Amino acid sequence: MSDLEQKSEQTPDKKDSHVSDSLASDTLKNVFKAAGKEENSIPLEVPESEAVKKAKALPIMRIIIAAAIVILLATAVPLLTGGFGSAGIGTVSTSSVSDTGKPTLVSSRLDGNSCILTFKAGANPIDWNGVYALDSSGSLVIASSVNESESSVTFPLNDGNLTIFVPDTENNILTLKLKVQTD
User: Fold this and answer.
1) Helices of type H across the chain
2) How far apart are CA 156 and CA 128, in angstroms?
3) pTM
4) How is domain 93-179 classified at the CATH fold level?
5) Which residues of the chain form CATH 2.60.40.10?
6) 5 within 8 A of 12, measured Cβ to Cβ
7) Which of the chain's ends, N or C, has fewer CB atoms near its CB within 10 Å?
């Protein structure tokens, strides 16, 4: 029996554990040498510490992602809702959007408890199926009538305030804020 076989058959007790580590180290060196590879000099603690670093970085990444989402939403909400002013029924304010191709408001008038709005198409035709409004509570208000030949839409004024969205076929949207003033 060779020395290596004799040493590996021995079961070391606690005081011989150093001998066992030495034997393992020598055997591992021989394996690397036989394979023509460089010895692995990375201590076992390094991969563990890298794993710990990654685990610690995970909550930080979640915070960064959450902050990016908040910034995105904070930027998108004003773009989606437009900058609204308030105006009486005789005047309707439009959002300030630089796209000149969107539809424009030609006239507005009251007819009982309804508001009739007339539009002019911009660079593209108005998407009449996409016209809608939201009341002051954010509930959807469907137009009571749409007259494409006259380019007009009639909305009921149940609570007196509406935000109206008029898109064209290229999704350029005219946004109107109507506020009925009571005298």
Assistant:
1) 3-9, 17-35, 45-81
2) 17
3) 0.46
4) Immunoglobulin-like (2.60.40)
5) 93-179
6) no
7) C
10 Å Cβ neighbour count for 7?
Answer: 15
- Residues 62-113 have pLDDT tens digits of 788 888 887 777 666 555 554 433 334 444 545 444 446 889 999 988 888 8
Measured distance CA(35)–CA(172) in Å, rounded = 68
Sign of the CA dihedral running 118, 110, 178, 94: positive
Q: What is Dmax (Cα atoms) for the chain? A: 112
Question: What is the tens place of the pLDDT at every residue in 22-70?
Answer: 777 788 788 778 877 777 655 554 455 566 666 666 777 778 888 888 7
Collapsing DSSP to helix, strand or coil, 178 comes out as strand
Please give the structure tokens belonging to residue 175. Answer: 């946004």
In this structure, the strands spanning 173-179 and 93-94 are antiparallel
By the 8 A CB rule, do 164 and 170 touch?
no
Helix and strand numbers, DSSP H then E, in the chain: 3, 9
